[in-house]
Amino acid sequence: NSFCTLLVVPVAMPTSPSLSSTSSSTSLSVSASESESSFAASVTRIERGDDEEPEFVDGVPDELQCGICLGVAKVAHVTEECGHLYCRDCILGAFDIKKACPYCREPLTDKGIRKSVRAQREIMALTVNCGNAKHGCEETCTLSDLERHMERCQYAKIDCPLRTYGCDAVISRKVLCEHLSACPVAVRLSQGDAALEHEMAIHQRANRGQFIWKIENIQSRRGQACSPGFMAHGLKWCLRHIPAQGGVFVVPVGHNKRASFTLTIFNTNQDNDVTDFDGGWPAAKTSWGFAKFTNPERLGTPGFVVDGCATVGVVMHGLIDD
Ligand SMILES: [Zn+2]
Ligand SMILES: [Zn+2]
Ligand SMILES: [Zn+2]
Ligand SMILES: [Zn+2]
User: Fold this and answer.
1) CB-based contact 124:143 (threshold 8 Å)
2) SUPFAM superfamilies attached here (predicted)?
3) How many angstroms does the Cα of residue 137 sit away from the middle of ligand 3?
């Protein structure tokens, strides 16, 4: 598809580590093959659950079935004395009730069972249907190759790689290119949407562990605004913006711990980002931050307000001991 080879994004795709980690360039052309390999890493949704039973093309031979659940033996274990095969969990569960082989009633101890490497190897060599058979994939492979196939399967359901920026489409991998030519977020990008480009650039340069909050209508709103909650040091926090003070504050949610933190307000020019550190949150204060962090002079400087929004990020460094 031509769109895939023509799609030029202003920054590396945020969900493709292989691209963003190897390039500091601000403009990247994603070719079809590049996008295919890097988008594989962006898969966050595979419909087949891990515990869903694979579909064996020729069924499971009796000697590889568990004597308790009658399915294919999972983590196959065999009894030493009588040689009967079970799933590990099935036989350990049965042992809780009675120390005997459930199939032939031979008395057993825990030491009377062992992992069956041979049975496990034979099971892994059985032929299975792809887990996306219900979506149209006709591939078959050995059980040992199934995971590798599923990672590449063109019928696998994946999230749009631009999910972070507002596209919530779930698509088959094989129609990724078609989707990107119609994806509302990709279309905004290809039309040079400045606000979206700013947002992507911020996400790209944000620290790991940084919580990012876009403060809407920052110059016209009168009332306070609160960010969604975020987790740091196992505790919930949020940010609060108080327009009258131009202040941005960290607020503990459901606890009264304090922390040192770094607050950043992002500019479209990364060199103009402003970052302040604070390590002196007093015990008496239920929230702490910087008054005038979003003062009118700063907001009036080009690059801090895009589409009516300013974007701030916070890194919570460490809890303050009392
Ligand atoms: Zn079983
Ligand atoms: Zn037995
Ligand atoms: Zn498949
Ligand atoms: Zn999309």
Assistant:
1) yes
2) RING/U-box, TRAF domain-like
3) 5
Dist. CA 259–CA 318, nearest whole Å: 5
Q: What is the pLDDT of residues 28-85, one digit of tens each?
A: 333 333 333 333 333 333 343 445 788 999 999 999 999 999 999 999 999 988 999 9
Centre of ligand 2 to C-alpha 100, Å, is 8
| Complex-level ipTM | 0.83
179 inside domain: yes
Check residue 72 and report its DSSP letter: B
φ, ψ for residue 119, nearest 5 deg = -60, -40
Angle, alpha carbons 71-76-78 (nearest 5°): 110
The C-alpha angle with vertex 141 and arms to 140 and 144, in degrees rounded to 5, equals 150
Instruction: Identify the nearest ligand to the CA of 89 by its number.
Output: 1
Residue 145 lies in a domain: no
Distance 136 CA to ligand 1 centre (A): 30
Q: Tell me the pLDDT tens digit for each residue of 258-289.
A: 999 999 999 999 999 999 999 999 999 999 99
Q: Distance, CA 49 to ligand 1 centroid (Å)?
A: 18
- How far apart are the C-alpha atoms of 310 and 322, rounded to whole Å? 34
Tokens of 191: 């039309």
Distance 251 CA to ligand 4 centre (A): 34
Q: What distance in angstroms lies between residue 78's CA and the mean position of ligand 3's atoms?
A: 32
219 with 291, same domain: the answer is: yes
Name beta bridge partners: 278.
Answer: 261
Residue 275 lies in a domain: yes
Determine the distance separating the centroid of ligand 3 and the alpha carbon of 156, expressed in angstroms: 7
Report how far apart the first and last C-alpha atoms of the chain are (Å, whole number).
60
Report whether 305 contacts 291 (CB < 8 A): no
Specify the residue for token string 């490497």: 117
Distance 4 CA to ligand 3 centre (A): 22
